[in-house]
Design brief:
- The strands form two sheets. Strands 2, 3, 4, 5, 6, 7, 8, 9, 10 and 11 form a ten-stranded mixed β-sheet that branches.
- The chain contains one helix and twelve strands, in the order βαβββββββββββ.
- It has 161 residues and is mainly beta.
């Protein structure tokens, strides 16, 4: 989905105060919930600034890529599809979770991300839906990144199709 190996490796390092909480309500199935340590990094892609937030634990995890034209402003951001190269601002969101021994992936394609920023600390609340990669269902996702300090390092954030 996104090339973010450096960001994923940084997740959950000791001293990281940020956390992520996910709730996935799947039609006709049990709701999946998980918490994980989280990190946030500035990221660069050709001609487009961004911030990537990542939280993962075991086989469960989530990624939010925020991109903008002028600034990382607080407020409601639209959810974008990962291949969107036209929209100037928005959030690209992907989620992975495991039920029993089966991995599920959900790129969100509708909803909003509410961004709050206090200095270099971010909080992001995502509410949306997306079609599971397997095409089985369209779960409702409630995802929160809370009090995640923005690291000083920069990672690549190139979308791969």
């Amino acid at each position: 989905m996104l090339v973010l190996g450096v960001a994923l490796a940084a997740c959950g390092r000791p001293g990281s105060a940020g956390w992520m909480r996910a709730r996935v309500a799947r039609p006709h199935a049990d709701t999946v919930r998980f918490d994980a340590p989280a990190s946030a990094h500035w990221c660069v892609a050709p001609g487009r600034p961004g911030v990537v937030l990542v939280g993962s634990t075991g086989g469960n995890g989530a990624l939010v890529l925020l991109r903008w034209r002028d600034s990382l402003a607080p407020g409601e951001w639209p959810l974008l599809q990962r291949a969107d190269t036209v929209s100037p601002a928005g959030a690209i969101v992907g989620l992975r979770f495991v039920v029993a021994t089966v991995a599920h992936g959900v790129p969100l394609d509708s909803g909003t991300a509410a961004v709050t920023r206090v200095g270099s600390v971010l909080s992001v609340r995502v509410r949306g839906t997306g079609l599971e990669v397997t095409g089985e269902s369209r779960p409702m996702v409630d995802l929160t990144f809370e009090a995640v300090a923005l690291a000083r390092d920069t990672v690549p954030c190139t979308v791969q199709l």
